[in-house]
From TrEMBL:
SUPFAM superfamilies: Glyoxalase/Bleomycin resistance protein/Dihydroxybiphenyl dioxygenase. InterPro entries: Glyas_Bleomycin-R_OHBP_Dase (IPR029068), Glyas_Fos-R_dOase_dom (IPR004360), VOC_core (IPR037523). Gene3D superfamilies: 2,3-Dihydroxybiphenyl 1,2-Dioxygenase, domain 1. It holds the Pfam family Glyoxalase. Residues 2-123 form the VOC domain. This is Putative glyoxalase superfamily protein PhnB.
């Protein structure tokens, strides 16, 4: 097997709002879109983020009504404090403050309009 690209696919209620959030606040670009579907990309992300409208008939019956709850869309960034300040200045509510874990991970979280958690991370914290 050779993997040529990667994507994470999330079922949400409002595809347009999810797409606009990642486009406006995280620099993604909508690569493809159709009713109930959007595929977003960033050259440096290493994967696409795909949003599917809940209830979409092309999904298998046992997945149609699932929501992307409990999933954390995490992006490792170089300037965590700078990104935190930028998002706060843009009015994005921070739903988990900047925290540091004993294994060196530092992170904070926001939520998109559908409740999808977006976490920005670096590995610059002190390690025990």
């Amino acid at each position: 097997m050779k993997i040529t690209s990667s994507a994470v696919s999330l079922n949400v209620d409002d595809v347009s709002a999810a797409s606009a959030f990642l486009t406006r606040h995280f620099g993604f670009v909508e690569e493809m879109a159709a009713p109930g579907f959007a595929s977003l990309t960033r050259e440096d992300a290493g994967m696409n983020v795909v949003f599917l409208r809940r209830g979409l008939e092309t999904l298998p019956d046992d997945q149609r009504d699932d929501h992307a709850r409990g999933i954390i869309l995490a992006f490792v960034v170089e300037d965590l404090e700078g990104e935190l300040a930028r998002l706060q200045a843009e009015g994005v509510p921070i739903t988990m403050p900047l925290t540091a874990e004993e294994w060196g991970e530092r992170a904070f979280q926001v939520r998109d309009p559908n409740g999808v958690i977006v976490q920005l991370v670096d590995w610059n914290g002190p390690r025990s």
